[in-house]
Amino acid sequence: MGGYILRRLLLMIPTLIGIMAISFIVVQFAPGGPVEQVIAELTGQGNNTTERISGGNDLQGAAFNDDFNSQYRGAQGLDPDFIKSLEKQFGFDKPPLERFLNMLWDYARFDFGESFFRNISVIDLIAEKLPVSISLGVWILLLSYGISIPLGIRKAVSDGSRFDVWTSGVIIIAYAVPGFLFGILLIVLFAGGSFFDWFPLRGLTSENWASLSWPERIIDYFWHLALPLVSLALAAFATTTLLTKNSFIDEIRKQYVTTARAKGLGERQVLYGHVFRNAMLIIIAGFPGAFITAFFSGSLLIETIFSLDGLGRLGFDSVVKRDYPVVFATLYIFSLMGLVIGLVSDLIYTWVDPRIDFERRDV
């Protein structure tokens, strides 16, 4: 197993380099980069992003030259020296390959630099947004797995019964309804939209959270999370339930289950002593993807609808504003976490079913 783990760890290096290289080519050379963002602000076409650039001093002293034809869209009339100073500040005065290699070297040392348009380091910015994503990710995983697995087992045991039929109908409907659409419906019904005003619509906590007692803080925290979690739970709940049911049905129909029953074992012993271990393999296989989705990529619309400032909105805003340090740093961190979690998932495979031996397989 040690050799397998070492090979997987070594393969992470070219995988990360490939991910970053493709993203660098696609994102960095797309039109509308940070230099053009500043130019758009100067010409009144952008949002307020230039306050961060050089403390505003270079912008105030920039001269205009109507005869200058710049390579940047909308830069006609700006001083060429000013354009060059912007390129140097953003690092675009260096060749693309040098910029990419410097980025890889910095990221290998977990040095992610500062945001282009915010006076804060990328790590501090991610840490600032992390509580929202952790709150959504942890609780949605606990809800989806804590409810879906027992429900899926019950549906598999009672396959074809009335309970199985009507729960399948509910699950299919829940899966078909987009989470963000259901979130809007919840706002209309329960967050002061048109009917009841029972739940808050902004943030993770109330303004007076610091003055509350610990029991009151816990209640306030879940009070704010109730509607976003219900909205996010629909798709994850449906997928995990049906996956669990089908996995258990496949195992229940196998010969070893018939043999176990013939030996006089009870249904509970057969189900949890024999079937459970094998049926859960496919659930474990899907955990890394569910983890990454729940934490980092599945909550952008929900965060926007419920005014939650998490990693989903951070990533989207960074791409829109061409804040490359934030874009590439979050991509690097999330990709690394995904690779590590994939390895951990394989190790859990061997723990759940000792018959699996990755040492005998090619990576």
From TrEMBL:
<keyword id="KW-0813">Transport</keyword>
<feature type="transmembrane region" description="Helical">
    <location>
        <begin position="134"/>
        <end position="153"/>
    </location>
</feature>
<feature type="transmembrane region" description="Helical">
    <location>
        <begin position="326"/>
        <end position="352"/>
    </location>
</feature>
<feature type="transmembrane region" description="Helical">
    <location>
        <begin position="221"/>
        <end position="244"/>
    </location>
</feature>
<dbReference type="InterPro" id="IPR000515">
    <property type="entry name" value="MetI-like"/>
</dbReference>
<feature type="domain" description="ABC transmembrane type-1">
    <location>
        <begin position="130"/>
        <end position="345"/>
    </location>
</feature>
<keyword id="KW-1003">Cell membrane</keyword>
<dbReference type="Pfam" id="PF00528">
    <property type="entry name" value="BPD_transp_1"/>
</dbReference>
<protein>
    <submittedName>
        <fullName>Microcin C ABC transporter permease YejB</fullName>
    </submittedName>
</protein>
<comment type="similarity">
    <text>Belongs to the binding-protein-dependent transport system permease family.</text>
</comment>
<dbReference type="GO" id="GO:0005886">
    <property type="term" value="C:plasma membrane"/>
</dbReference>
<dbReference type="InterPro" id="IPR035906">
    <property type="entry name" value="MetI-like_sf"/>
</dbReference>
<feature type="transmembrane region" description="Helical">
    <location>
        <begin position="9"/>
        <end position="30"/>
    </location>
</feature>
<feature type="transmembrane region" description="Helical">
    <location>
        <begin position="281"/>
        <end position="306"/>
    </location>
</feature>
<feature type="transmembrane region" description="Helical">
    <location>
        <begin position="165"/>
        <end position="191"/>
    </location>
</feature>
<keyword id="KW-1133">Transmembrane helix</keyword>
<keyword id="KW-0812">Transmembrane</keyword>
<keyword id="KW-0472">Membrane</keyword>
<dbReference type="GO" id="GO:0042884">
    <property type="term" value="P:microcin transport"/>
</dbReference>
<dbReference type="GO" id="GO:0055085">
    <property type="term" value="P:transmembrane transport"/>
</dbReference>
